[in-house]
Each structure stands twice: as C-alpha cells, then as structure tokens.
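#struct-pred

JT: dropping the chains for the assembly here, can someone run the whole complex?
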Amino acid sequence: MTSTVAGGRLLTPGEVAALFRVDPKTVTRWATAGRIGSIRTPGGHRRFRESEVNQLLAELTTDASTPTA
Amino acid sequence: MTSTVAGGRLLTPGEVAALFRVDPKTVTRWATAGRIGSIRTPGGHRRFRESEVNQLLAELTTDASTPTA
DNA sequence: CTATATTTGGGTAATTAGGGTC
DNA sequence: TGTGTCCTAATTACCCAAATAT
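RK: done, full complex below.
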C-alpha cells in the first residue's frame, strides 16, 4: 500500500504527537493556530509533512553547550 | 552521526524534576543555563531527552568509583 | 460489508513559562 | 551561585461521543 507519491511522506497527528511527546489534540491545535502546515483528507482528518515536522523539530532543538564535565 | 531529531524518548519538565527531586522550575533553569539540551514545542513548552537526563544523573552521582575531582 | 484504531469536536483541569524575590 | 516559592498568562492533557481511516 502507500502510493508513495514522490516528495514528502505524510504523518498522522499521532505520529507527530509522539515525536514531540504531546497529545495528538495538541498537534491539531498547532495546525489550527497555523504553527504547522497541514493537509486535510476528504474526511476532514489532518496529515502533516514529515519534512516540515523534522524541520520544525530541528529548529526547536537546543543542544547542551556543556556536554560532559 | 547522532541525529538530532531522533533517538530516545522525551520527558516533560515534571518528569525530569521528579527524577532529580527538584522543582520543575529548577529544571527550566538548567535548560536556560545550557546545562541540559531541550526541545521546545511550538507552544513553548520544553521536552528533555531521557538519554541525556540519565547521563546527567549518572554524572551527578557521587560514586566511590567515580572520581569527580 | 464488518471490525479495530485513530481523529475529530468542545469543555475543563493540570502543567508549564516567565519574572521577581527570598 | 543555586534552589524554592509567589504571582499571572499561556499551553497542554484528559473527559466524552461520533466520524473517519485502514
């Protein structure tokens, strides 16, 4: 299955929620607030682009400046 | 190369605070001071890497076989 | 078509962020 | 210097039932 359309993979709210360690409902709010792009299925469910999610995740990630001491 | 957007589970400030027996506010200060890496949700809340937290815990653990000075 | 897991929607508690102070 | 506690505002989590996805 999965047509695998050339381009980006689509993630479900549950997948994105797991990446950020938040509730799927929260991801929905991000989409509603325009903080993250979303694609709606004909049924009204949201899907998110993996590339955009990873990009967002990378931008919001802060590494410790003092690793090991 | 240790990826930045994948690896281990993420912990909430309250979870980390419970592990260290400190106030969540203190964990926030650690993140602000750059002593521990953090991932911010689009809403501004922080999530911490369990592996990094465990490593920090191990480093702070005063062990007989762990000469810190 | 049936069946299971997920997502949606609204509303309310719990947690977190940020500043200031001890 | 580091931590705990005060406050308010914002964000997030969990409750329900119905609809959608696979």
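JT: nice. DSSP finds three helices and three strands in chain B. Residues 4 and 39 of chain B are 10 Å apart (CA to CA).
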